[in-house]
């Protein structure tokens, strides 16, 4: 029965996706069909309806629409340009200073907005024309922007990490947030190193000089935006408020900041609210339908079957983790991070825990893999966004992206096989028991 249910879900989901059905509906319909395999019709329908409501009955999930709203306000509120100017203070002495500015800005803006696509659009939209004017190859500029934009999906606050914490169960959001810092920063540093080598080879030099007084003014202008991270993360760690309450505070703070910057008017708010509602509805509906799949998998013990099957291939932990990484990398190339987290957390989490890996480390490994998928074809939303703002075709940028892919993959291996990369900060702060 478990095998039949698994086949119904797998074949049904793939079939609906092939014919162009949205993934949330594909997963929901296939999961209900699998439910009817193991339960009578009335019991299956009632249980499916119950799981939808139970899956959404979580206070922590309120953080998702609030953080999305905060990110949309920031994207429209003139915060990106101030962070870009601040990033120049650190990158002006490095080879390819404008490209380095793009990378640091993506890390800063991504950590505030929590969206890699928003970072690629906001930062790339500003930096691409400037780099083109300074003689930078558009392929190089676009590749740098694309490769660095996903860092915000690891550096907190991150909606993908919140989704994982919800699915994984008793995993601290605070610990996951702290665990994402070092891998996210290492991702950015890896991109900076490759960008520097390329820039030196191409002869890109910095022509802009910034005086001490200008540096002070730029820092002063950026401090209010940077303070948002300190307020949100600092408040969560200090126990002043929860991650959900922090998301609401982020909305209020970003709204006040944008109004003070005079870059956001009341007329802009309806469109921002509508955009937020659409984005939130997609995520929440996906959470609702995937909760049916999670119940079916738990009831039929499908994850245990997968664990047994994988262990029958090899009992070498190094090879098992490599296989999991490769599977997740392939999944990430055609599936968005949120549904992938919902579907594959119940499958791979038990395997990694059985190998002695912390659920916190696995969460970062999972998000890292799926974030890498956002910059790879055929689906890659950040890849498409980066090419669009860089005014360049995808085929032209792929070759330039290859060295960045290699550097990021090496960083992924560090996250996989060196637990301290993701666990050091949470353990140091006493967030891991």
Explain what this protein looks like in three dimensions:
With 433 residues, this protein is an all-alpha fold. Helices cover 80% and strands 0% of the residues. The chain contains 20 helices and no strands. The radius of gyration is 22 Å and the shape is globular. The protein starts with a helix and ends in a 5-residue tail after the last helix.
Summarize the structure.
With 433 residues, this protein is an all-alpha fold.
* Separate helix tally: 20
Query: Helix and strand string, N-terminal first?
Result: HHHHHHHHHHHHHHHHHHHH
Shape: globular
Class per helix and strand makeup: mainly alpha
Features:
433 residues; mainly alpha
Give me the secondary-structure topology.
Layout: H1 2-18, H2 23-38, H3 41-56, H4 63-76, H5 79-91, H6 97-113, H7 116-133, H8 138-148, H9 159-168, H10 173-202, H11 212-238, H12 243-261, H13 269-300, H14 302-313, H15 317-334, H16 337-354, H17 359-373, H18 381-389, H19 394-417, H20 420-428
Helix pairs in contact: 1-2, 1-13, 2-3, 2-13, 3-13, 4-12, 4-13, 5-6, 5-11, 6-7, 6-8, 6-10, 7-8, 7-18, 8-10, 8-18, 8-19, 9-16, 9-17, 10-17, 10-19, 10-20, 11-12, 13-16, 14-16, 15-16, 15-17, 16-17, 17-19
């Amino acid at each position: 029965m478990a095998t039949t249910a698994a086949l119904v879900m797998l074949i049904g989901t793939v079939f609906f996706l092939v014919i162009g059905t949205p993934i949330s509906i594909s997963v929901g319909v296939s999961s209900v069909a699998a439910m009817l395999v193991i339960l009578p019709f009335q019991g299956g329908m009632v249980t499916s309806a119950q799981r939808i409501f139970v899956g959404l009955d979580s206070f922590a999930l309120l953080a998702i629409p609030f953080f999305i709203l905060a990110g949309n306000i920031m994207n429209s509120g003139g915060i990106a340009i101030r962070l870009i100017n601040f990033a120049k203070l650190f990158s002006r002495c490095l080879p390819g200073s404008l490209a380095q500015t793009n990378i640091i800005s993506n890390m800063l803006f991504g950590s505030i907005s929590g969206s890699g696509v928003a970072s690629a659009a906001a930062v790339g939209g500003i930096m691409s024309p400037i780099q083109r004017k300074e003689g930078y190859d558009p392929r190089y500029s676009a590749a740098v922007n694309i490769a660095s934009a996903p860092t915000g999906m690891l550096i907190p606050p991150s909606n993908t990490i919140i989704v994982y914490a919800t699915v994984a169960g008793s995993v601290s959001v605070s610990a996951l947030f702290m665990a994402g810092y070092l891998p996210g920063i290492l991702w950015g540093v890896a991109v900076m190193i490759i960008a520097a080598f390329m820039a030196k080879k191409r002869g890109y030099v910095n022509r802009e000089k910034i005086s001490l007084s200008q540096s002070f003014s730029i820092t002063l202008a950026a401090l209010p935006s940077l303070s948002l991270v300190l307020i949100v993360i600092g408040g969560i760690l200090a126990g002043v408020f929860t991650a959900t309450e922090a998301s609401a505070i982020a909305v209020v703070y970003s709204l006040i900041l944008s109004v003070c910057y005079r870059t956001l008017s009341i007329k802009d708010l309806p469109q921002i609210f509508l955009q937020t509602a659409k984005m939130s509805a997609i995520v929440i509906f996906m959470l609702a339908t995937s909760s049916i799949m999670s119940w079916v998998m738990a009831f039929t013990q499908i994850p245990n079957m997968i664990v047994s099957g994988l262990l029958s291939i090899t009992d070498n932990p190094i090879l098992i983790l490599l296989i999991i990484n490769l599977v997740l990398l392939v999944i990430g190339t055609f599936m968005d991070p949120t549904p992938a987290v919902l579907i594959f957390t119940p499958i791979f989490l038990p395997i990694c825990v059985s190998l002695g890996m912390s659920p916190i480390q696995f969460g970062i490994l999972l998000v890292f893999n799926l974030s890498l998928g956002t910059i790879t074809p055929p689906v890659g939303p950040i890849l498409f966004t980066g090419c669009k703002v860089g005014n360049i075709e995808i085929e032209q940028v792929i070759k330039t992206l290859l060295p960045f892919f290699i550097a990021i993959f090496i960083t992924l291996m560090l996250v996989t096989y060196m637990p301290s990369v993701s666990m050091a900060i949470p353990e140091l702060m006493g967030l891991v028991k």
